[in-house]
């Protein structure tokens, strides 16, 4: 999200690492679910837009970016009282988590679920 907002090349590792180090991500519980903030600005919906989602894979390929993000996720997890989802949360991020739930779904099922989520939020998405 920040890379796109700041027109930073998502193939360039060092500027992406700088974004990780120089910005603060926080969360707040709300009636309608968890809200996400970067430097105090709410980005809950913005980080789920198709352009951001499409950039995630390229950004996550950078080893140093992954190191920074895993460290942040571990810090959040150590505080307790959190539910995290993602491909490597139970293996790389929180391998000793008190509770782990693994869901398995086909690519088609995951795509349909994301499509429906986006429709409900008014985000234009192709299926």
UniProtKB/TrEMBL annotation:
Residues 1-126 form the Cytidylate kinase domain. It catalyses: CMP + ATP = CDP + ADP; dCMP + ATP = dCDP + ADP. SUPFAM superfamilies: P-loop containing nucleoside triphosphate hydrolases. This is (d)CMP kinase. It holds the Pfam family Cytidylate_kin. One of its GO terms (biological process) is nucleobase-containing compound metabolic process. Keywords: ATP-binding, Kinase, Nucleotide-binding, Transferase. The keyword Transmembrane does not apply. It is an enzyme of class 2 (transferase). Its EC number is 2.7.4.25. Belongs to the cytidylate kinase family. Type 1 subfamily. It comes from the Bacteria. One of its GO terms (molecular function) is ATP binding.
